[in-house]
């Protein structure tokens, strides 16, 4: 293994830059030639690839987003697109590839590995929806952003005596809502994993008001229901004014928290070391603070488990 390429794909996640830095510096430390592929799998198809050196990754560990940029690339899902990518890898003499991204990007990594390209997948997504790993890079930073927003909304909720809904990201996974709801001490957490029951939410709003609570915050994971519809239903059923804040893409940005920087640095280093050991088709993960690698196909088959205990804790503490 002489030359390693790295790319970021799918949704950006804070900590991707720290992972790129970990990859590039480890490769250079081990006398490898390191190359950065731009715009996800698009850059692999079009040959948008540059050499990277120690200073290409200076001053990025603290930056959100990805210096390599990212993209979704439908062409890469096709056989033809993958063949083009493999040709480009040959033209640039890239012997191994490290792919940073979420579920879809790891499927892309698997596709290349199945075709004989030494490939390692590093989990980077704020959604934390990969079942095989406790955490993905970017998740804790997104939670930090949401908790900060909840604290600010709590001030205004208290001052006006209103109910507030905070809509968060996560698609089909409720982890951002669950962790930020627990850390933010909110009254209700609405997740895709738990059936939605408007009456029990309204009951909580009314009970809170009756015992003199001046604020009521509901964290709603996107995809559960329309936040504005839920607000209207609460107003109609309780008479309590309910405001909506959709946090949207601010959850993707920001400086990564130390946990994400450390995870990214360690995973970036390990990804290079695995390629140097001639390993391929591996996905990196973390369980109980230990970073591990496993077969990427098996990793992608592990179903995400909902943390019922954590959900129950949040419920008990929000009575
Ligand atoms: P996030 O979780 O943040 O959305 P992601 O990596 O899951 O990130 P996707 O849009 O699902 O984001 O995938 C990113 C890219 O990975 C796709 O645009 C495509 O190029 C590639 N990809 C996705 N699925 C496959 C697949 N089954 N085979 C090959 N490539 C794939």
UniProtKB/TrEMBL annotation:
Keywords: Allosteric enzyme, ATP-binding, Cytoplasm, Glycolysis, Kinase, Magnesium, Metal-binding, Nucleotide-binding, Transferase. Gene3D superfamilies: 3.40.50.450, Phosphofructokinase domain. ADP binds at residues 21-25, 154, 185-187, 211, 213-215. Catalyzes the phosphorylation of D-fructose 6-phosphate to fructose 1,6-bisphosphate by ATP, the first committing step of glycolysis. Allosterically activated by ADP and other diphosphonucleosides, and allosterically inhibited by phosphoenolpyruvate. It comes from the Bacteria. Residues 4-275 form the Phosphofructokinase domain. ATP binds at residues 11, 72-73, 102-105. Mg(2+) binds at residue 103. Homotetramer. Its cofactor is Mg(2+). Belongs to the phosphofructokinase type A (PFKA) family. ATP-dependent PFK group I subfamily. Prokaryotic clade 'B1' sub-subfamily. Its main location: cytoplasm. InterPro entries: ATP_PFK, ATP_PFK_prok-type, PFKA_ATP_prok, Phosphofructokinase_CS, Phosphofructokinase_dom, PKF_sf. This is ATP-dependent 6-phosphofructokinase. GO terms for molecular function: 6-phosphofructokinase activity; AMP binding; ATP binding; fructose-6-phosphate binding; identical protein binding; metal ion binding; monosaccharide binding. It catalyses: beta-D-fructose 6-phosphate + ATP = beta-D-fructose 1,6-bisphosphate + ADP + H(+). The active site is at 127 (proton acceptor). Its EC number is 2.7.1.11. GO terms for biological process: canonical glycolysis; fructose 1,6-bisphosphate metabolic process; fructose 6-phosphate metabolic process.
